[in-house]
Amino acid sequence: MRWDAFAAACPEIAARAHARFTADELVLLGTLRKDGSARISPCEIDFADGRLMLGMMWRSRKALDLTRDPRIVVHSLPSDKANLGGDAKLYGRAVDEQDPDVREAFGRAIQARLDWRPDEPFHLFSLDVSEAAFVVFGEERTVLTWDPERGLRRSSTPH
Is the N-terminal amide bond of 121 cis, ω within 30° of 0? Predict the structure, then answer.
């Protein structure tokens, strides 16, 4: 489901993930290489037109991975080994965004954030969320998980 639908379905995780992603302005992106092995890459992130957007250099390895196999994981940057700010993970599929209006909305978002706009050609994907998790570390570890079938689940364990 698109970001806006996910945020409506699971505001508890969406708000935390949005805050982490916006503060860091960078995520770790998991894709699958041609041979099926995993690739992890840094990627900037923006929110526009109800979507979580991932812009990539034209023909970059991670973009080619996603054009071949759209399965993706987006993970927040750990702040340190304690990672007290929490750990956001979103799983789903990358949607190749070709619509000029969506690309323009992305352009405006990145322009507002960086005072810069990418020149064509570039790859633009949005995340179609199928599962999500947010883990808070510390004395009381809290794990929030979500999927559309089971909804939000919460568990806490002493560290």
Answer: yes
